[in-house]
Amino acid sequence: MTRTVLHKLIAGITGIATLGALVACDGGSRGTAGSASPAAATEGTAAAVADSTARISADSAAAMAAVRDTATAHRLSPSADSLTPFLVFVPADERLLVAAVRNKQWLLDVGRMDTDIRKDSAKARAFREAAPVLSPVPPGTRFRLHWARGAEDVAVDSFAVYNGRLVMHVMGSPALDSAARGKGVFAALAARADSALPAAPTPCELRVDPDSATRAATAALLPAERRAQAAARRTADSSYDARVAAVRDSLELELRKDRPPYERLQRRTKAVATQLRGCFGPARRALLVSLRAGDAEWVRERLVLVPAEGALTVLRIDDLRFRAHELLTAFDADGDGVDDLTVKGVATRAGGTAILRLDLTKKRAERLAAGFAWEVF
Known about the structure:
The chain is α+β, with helices and mostly antiparallel strands and about 375 residues long. The protein contains 8 helices and 15 strands.
């Protein structure tokens, strides 16, 4: 058997050698007929490979140079360039951003800062140089700001760092500035696209200012009539408050039927309820009740819209980033006449501010934008 295999191997090698000789003869005959010689063909192939390699290298270098020039509109100083890995901005095509009142001023969240520059003046100067170059939101950009008192066009000008977030100062109307200096909690949705379009009307009596005739009629009332109107409003509000309180208690009882799986979490279970006034279709109150244990490790929550009378509207919360929520403000973020919700979101060792858009048809509150996130390590 071994001798037979050896004969077959020798025959195969002989066949390969014969085929190579025939190919060589065929190439030689073609070269004689006027084609390029094998040596010339080899030189041409090598030259073509060299040209291709040079072309690919040149194209790659040009592409990398173009990327660098696009990322930095002009050359940064070494100190500013060393700070660029720590500046994490929002995507360039992000249309919806979150603005909020922090330290008595309106700030727009545009990213995350991964280093501390508060105690280093050199880093602070480098930040002021690098941020306008790297940011996808250049200073002077105009936004349509939707907040609790309507919608208006604003501009952003300078960069700062607040609680680990990259922010820009918002310049708006005097009403916007006075709201920031007040005691209320304000947040807003800033939209870059279609910011020049007029604000859509929101037909809700909570946001309609009285006209001159209404004000004149109110001024003409006698003191006793004004007191009667005020008493009637208080009675209506108190009955509304009583119904919201009853709904809150029933929701908490329903949530407490479900218990955390571990005894450690059962000892640390608490209920948090928040409510807001707003224009939510036929309802004028939004109520969110959450039952949470530990550091938001186990959460059960319900979001409902409470009308003055009639059935409640239960909404599903579509916000995978945060597990528990608390209501902050209500305003019409998309101009559809239905108020949307600004919430404080909480997760395990993390949190932030989110804007939930209310869809009464699908009965859900879906995340529209988020910002001012924080984490604890």
